[in-house]
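Hello,

Our lab assistant flagged a job as stuck in the queue for most of the afternoon. It eventually completed. Since we weren't sure the result was trustworthy after the delay, we are filing this so someone can double-check. Below is the sequence as submitted and the structure that was eventually returned. Let us know if re-running is recommended.
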Amino acid sequence: MKILNYIFLFAFFAASYQAGSQMLSESNTIIFFGDSITELGDRPEGFITLIRDTLVTKLGVNAPRIINAGISGNKVTDLQARLVRDVIQKKPTVAVIYIGINDVWHYALPNLKGTPKDVYESELKNIVTKIKVAGAKVFLCTPTVIGEKRHGTNPQDTMLDEYAALSVRVAYETNSMLIDLHSVFLNYLRNYNPDNLSEGILTVDGVHLNTTGNELVASEILKAFHNEKIF
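-- returned structure --
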């Protein structure tokens, strides 16, 4: 089921423009900072492509520059290691951080290691704080899903809930904008996965987004931008 398309996006932004929202300009930069889910966001159906195309169509030459800083396999510690190079030095106006899946998922994969909860929280908080000190507005996304079956029956649901809660706490403690994708995905799956499938509703493999998942993420991020009046 399609939950979003370009027509909806354009109508949404036309209404916000008529309401007199502040617009981003070409002098602004939005960086998306994350793992393979973010890296894949630049594909034709990806959420970053949807966001970029929507802003370009709405704002034309005044649309912000958008940088994809997603790298496959990254965990929060990897973001910390490349924070200066891939974010701070590019002087973004807005940074969208979408991380946490690998920090949990890697506990279940052979020859890989997850991230302890205390390390996840402290590193994430440090990343957000440094970006804010550098002058950017931060939007922090909670990790989405690892498996799409009924909540509580996927093997890593409990742990992922805990890490999502840590992201919520970091957003609150750093006064950052929260985009609670975890809750949004769970709500969507409750309504649109009647056959209790493990994948194929919002993801292609239980983790990486399909077209509908990308549309849902794009919709939530654009709504957050609109609510914060950054366009």
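-- support follow-up --
The delay was a queue issue, not a problem with the job. The result is valid. Residues 54 and 95 are 18 Å apart (CA to CA). The chain has a mean pLDDT of 92.
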